[in-house]
Amino acid sequence: MVRNMTEGSISRHLLAYAVPLILGNLFQLTYNAVDSIIVGRYIGKEALAAVGTASPVMNMIILGISGICIGASVLMSNYFGAGQLDMVKKEMATTAVFGVYFSLIVAALGIGTARPLLKALCVPEEILDIASVYLKIIFLGAPFTFFYNAIASALKSVGDSKTPLKFLAFCSVLNGVLDIIFIGGFRFGIICSAVTTVIAEALSAILCVIYVYRRIPQLQLSLGEFKADRELLKQTLQYGSVTALQQSCQPIGKLLIQGAVNPMGVDVMAAFNAVNKIDAYAFTPEQSISHAMTTFVAQNSGAGKEERIRKGFRIGMALEFCYWIVICIVVLALRVPLMRLFVTGDAAHIVALGSSYLGIMALFYVFPGFTNGMQGYFRGRKRMKMTLLGTFIQTSLRVVFVHVLVPKMGLKGVAFACAIGWSMMLAVEIPYYFYTLRQPS
User: What would the pLDDT profile of 24-63 be if each residue is shown by its tens digit?
Assistant: First the structure.
């Protein structure tokens, strides 16, 4: 359903947009965990390790694709808010045409370089072959990944956050069912896992296309409209490339932080991996509220409604704060049972390490709530360079202080390092926010 956020209740618009994103992303996190369990239990630890070692490469591809699509989404939201539906279609056509060439190039390069790339990442020889095959098949799905993200971004730009996530949820369940049947039942190997993933990606993209041509006339393109506009492509890549670079800071930072945690021993590593999963669940709603703020700000910026943007920003930040109160109470109350989900047998030390970390981090979740809100606002304002600067400051300081604090404080040092990074990010972004009020985009 198309949602014009330039009129009506601001809080209702933000919640109606954010809640489906929250549910869909939480579902995706749960599915990814279940998928890993299926691979590990029915194929073996080598296959699980192969999938795990391919994940950073896959994530970088997805981040690159989603970054470009976010750039396109901001432009489409802006045009939609301004009532320029012809420009919405023109931007969608530009993104689609570019996507054909970009995704095919990514797929070809990925297939050709999968094995050397995994060797460069020091993947052990005993799993190099299966990891290489798995990654090559995943690269074949790059065009489907791009088009799902592009169409999903187009739908979100006109206020429809429910539909793409419905299709993603359906296809994720299908992927899981196929995994259970062919891997758990017929004992097929890791190739089957990769193929079912690509099938799910393809079906997600196809369902989104069908939905657009049946229900959303604002996004329907005729055959003659599939042309790339050079100026629009330049703007899309300008915003998208900065967003992709900003998003890539996070996984790079995590790799560097892992390097500080690993020397602390197996128990600390195990606890750290568990709390990372819990953190991901905590952060996802904050990020979804941020995405809602991006679309809201972009639509109202296109409509020239500055006062409504300011009010929407305040309501969005209030939602982030209210969510923090809830997640803080939940994590503080359930941190020990949550840690026990990840371990079996005599693992009291791991549970103690993780629950101690979560007891501190629960209080600090307020900081990423506010930083995500600021990032959503800046994206809607097309201030992509500020989102990159803020993320770079936060990630850099977090990595530095992790290496300083973890040897002295153990896992708790990671929580304090994160808080320092987020605090400094806000110290830069808050003054810049007031600057944008004087110079609206």
Answer: 777 767 766 666 667 766 776 667 666 666 766 777 788 7
What percent of the chain has a predicted confidence (pLDDT) above 90? 51
**Residue 430 domain flag:** yes
Q: What are the phi and psi torsion angles at 440 (to 5°)?
A: -65, 145
- Cα 93 to chain centroid distance, Å, stands at 24
Containing structural domain, residue 314: 242-441
CA distance 269 to 259: 10
In a domain, residue 235? The reply is no
245-281: per-residue pLDDT in tens?
Answer: 887 777 777 767 767 776 877 788 778 877 887 898 8
Q: Assess whether 211 and 246 both reside in one domain.
A: no
Same domain, 105 and 130: yes
d(CA 243, CA 251): 14
pLDDT per position as a tens digit, 197-212? 888 889 989 999 999 9
Quote the pLDDT of residue 239. Answer: 85
- Residue 119 contacts residue 127 (beta carbons within 8 Å): no
Closest Cα to residue 153, out of 69, 84, 250, 39? 69
Cβ contact 68:102 at 8 Å: yes
Tokens of 375: 């990032």
One-letter amino acid for residue 289 of the chain: I
* Number of residues in the chain: 441
Residue found by looking up tokens 């549910």 in the block: 23
Q: What is d(CA 50, CA 74) in angstroms, rounded to the nearest whole number?
A: 36
Determine the Cα–Cα distance for residues 251 and 423; give it in Å rounded to an integer: 20
* Reported confidence tier of residue 322, pLDDT bands at 50, 70, 90: very high
User: Any idea what DSSP says for residue 302?
Assistant: H
Q: Are residues 205 and 256 in the same domain?
A: no
In which residue are the tokens 């305040």 written? Answer: 314
CA end-to-end distance (rounded Å), the chain: 28
- Specify if 234 maps to a domain: no
Mean of all residue pLDDT scores within the chain: 87
d(CA 438, CA 114) in angstroms, rounded, equals 49
Task: Please give the model's pTM, rounded to 2 decimal places.
Answer: 0.81
Q: Are 171 and 31 in contact (CB under 8 A)?
A: no
Which 8-state DSSP code applies to residue 84?
-
Instruction: Say how far residue 408 (Cα) sits from the centre of its chain.
Output: 32
